[in-house]
C-alpha cells in the first residue's frame, strides 16, 4: 500500500471543467463525424432512418399473435428442424476442415512422412524375408 505522502505525490487524472453542459460535449463528436464525411467523399451519404410510430400494447400483442399464427400455419417445426440440421452439418464441415488444416503436414515434414510410409509399405508388402538392412530404395 502507498503511504499518504506517496499518494499525494502521484499526479491525478485531468478532469473536465464542470461548466460544460451535455450539448457542448456532443458538439465535438458531431464535428468529428462531419470531418470524416469530408475526408471520404466516395462513401454513401448517411441518412437518418425514419422513426416508427409508437404502437400500443394491444397492437403489439396482435402482431405477436399474427406472427405466431402464420408461423404455425407454415409448419415451422419442420422448418426449424431443417435449419438446425443444416447448421449442424455446416458446423461439422467447419470442424473437419479445421482439423484437416491442423494436422496437415507441410514442407519437409510431409516429405519425411511420405518417405516413411513408402518404406514401411515396401517392407510389409514386398519383403517376405525379414529386413536385413540392405534395402536400396530411391524416392
UniProtKB/TrEMBL annotation:
Comp. bias regions, Low complexity: 65-75
Region (Disordered): 1-102
Comp. bias regions, Basic and acidic residues: 15-40, 76-87
The protein's name in its UniProt record: Uncharacterized protein
Top-level taxonomy: Eukaryota, Metazoa, Spiralia, Lophotrochozoa, Mollusca
Amino acid at each position: 500500500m502507498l503511504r499518504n505522502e506517496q499518494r499525494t505525490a502521484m499526479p491525478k487524472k485531468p478532469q473536465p471543467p464542470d461548466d460544460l453542459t451535455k450539448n457542448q460535449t456532443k458538439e465535438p463528436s458531431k464535428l468529428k463525424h462531419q470531418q470524416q464525411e469530408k475526408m471520404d467523399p466516395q462513401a454513401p451519404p448517411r441518412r437518418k432512418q425514419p422513426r416508427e410510430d409508437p404502437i400500443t400494447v394491444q397492437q403489439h400483442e396482435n402482431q405477436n399473435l399474427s406472427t405466431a399464427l402464420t408461423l404455425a400455419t407454415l409448419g415451422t417445426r419442420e422448418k426449424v428442424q431443417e435449419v438446425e440440421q443444416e447448421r449442424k452439418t455446416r458446423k461439422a464441415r467447419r470442424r473437419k476442415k479445421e482439423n484437416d488444416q491442423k494436422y496437415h503436414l507441410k514442407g519437409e515434414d510431409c516429405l519425411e512422412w511420405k518417405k516413411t510410409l513408402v518404406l514401411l509399405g515396401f517392407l510389409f508388402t514386398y519383403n517376405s524375408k525379414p529386413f536385413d538392412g540392405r534395402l536400396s530404395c530411391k524416392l
